[in-house]
Amino acid sequence: MMRMQYKRRAQLKTNYRRRLRLLLGRKDRIVVRKSISGFSIQLVRYSESGDQTFVEVSTKHLREHGWKGHGGSIPSAYLTGFLFGKTAAKKGFGSGVIDFGQESVSQSLLAAALGARDAGIDVPVGAEVPEERIKGLHIAEYARKMKGSEPENYKKRFSAYLKNGLAPENIPEHFEEVKKTLEGL
User: Domains in the chain: how many in total?
Assistant: First the structure.
């Protein structure tokens, strides 16, 4: 007997067993995806005619609220999740299960889920990310060291931050400013 091969399984895009377990729970899914330049988070509900997306937030939306840092960082992930949570709550959604897809769980993906949880969405998250990483203290410390010892590498490494008008040593303060803005939504 020949086994049916699914295209998305062959491309390593979908784990159908994991997807089935998520769907059998009959809860909305909070789909978190990471790219090199940022994150996208969607609230998706299963339908026999195809999944329906009700809320979608990406790092690009975060920039509209003043974020100047790198889109793929842990602070950016948390703030994108926080913005997602605020947006979903405004639209009447209050809970969901996390769907990381084929991604292995990392601190940045967890930070996005924690951001949604801190914004008021009931999200079961089993692990925590240290607060100093969420706020970007590790980036600021690294930038300070590099600025003192390797100024040319500092300019190259953090060129996008500097181009946006943000000294990377000030990320924790900038994080707090943007979070405060998002809390007001």
Answer: 1
